[in-house]
Description:
- The chain contains 13 helices and 21 strands.
- By secondary structure, the chain is of the alpha+beta class.
- Helix 4 (60-76) runs parallel beside helix 6 (125-138) and helix 6 (125-138) packs across helix 9.
Amino acid sequence: MAIVRPFKAIRPKRDKVNLVASRSYLTYSDDTLQEKLDNNPYTFLHIINPDYNKKDKKSGKEKFNLVKEKFSKFINENVLFQEEENCFYIYQQKNENNIFTGIIAATSVDDYLNGNIKIHEQTITKREEMFKDYLQTTGFNAEPVLLTYKDNQNINSIIQKKTKERSEYEFTTTNKVLHKLWKIENKEDIENIISEFKKTKNIYIADGHHRSASSSLLCQNIRKENQDYNPEDNFNFFMSYLIPESELNIINFNRLIKHTNGLTANELIYKIENNYTVLEKGKNIYYPTFKDEISMYLGGNWYSLIAHFKKYNSTSESLDPSILSANILSPILGITDEKTDENISFYDGTIPLVELKEKVDNQEYSIAFILKPIDIESLKKVADNNEIMPPKSTYIEPKLRSGVTIYKLD
């Protein structure tokens, strides 16, 4: 049983949504971020970078208070407004390869706490606390957690009916992605969506583990401070984008390593052969396709690495990222903590392999390991069994824009 509910989104005026919507600021280079802040007065980036043009930049809660002030200014200047009625929102992204269509809703923190919303990735306590403080101070959430659920024909029918109508928003971003948004205001449709999700046993976090964890942490803190809290108050929920499993696109994460731990190429391959069958594939880029296969680029040559068969204690241990960590990264290359070791970098599978090859050729890195995407069933098994995958095991699309719908926590 999953609890979802409509909410009164704060969102951009129709004529400004294409200017407000932004990627996560962490995905912009410093130069691009500066250019957008200098030339677009409406970008949501101004809200999360309220002191970008000041020499004395604030941090922590002082910075978060400035964010809140800037957010209020956007509302007062009618760049943003709040919906008058509770709605669900259908949000769609379309690129040259995929169409993603799902429902933006408020989902229950209690579902996260009791395991109805399942995780597959460990969170970092320090980041949880930081995001919790951010939410507590600013009082809003502007980027939905990406959740996935088993395809539901009744929900799909509501979506299909609504998307035949004129959309509330329609705009294209510079990465050639078309974005559309529809409001679901019809009471019967709203009740049907709520009812169908109540029948849904498990929902899985695809992207946004830290956002959901920090919302949960904030909720628990508020409840401790106020034993007579109202369970219907907004802080008991967090904004999510719910998309059926069939539309989720899981992409691989590749690993680039800065050193060989003092080993020559031949010595490294000799050690790898204890756990992998190694075949040289020559100078042309080689992408893995077989079960338990990854590829490696080292010393100007590509190699196929197929892990020797063995029985694993868990689903997580049987996945390529874990096999790589257990048999090469840790014992041979000395990388024991992939979350903190500066000698490993992660590049998602949307980045062409020729670019990763160039990074090795120009000696920025010594080795590239290329992995295959993890399938949705494996991801679900990991979550169902309360297992955890290594960091950066999956890169999942769609990637949502900040500021299209904003959820008020108070």
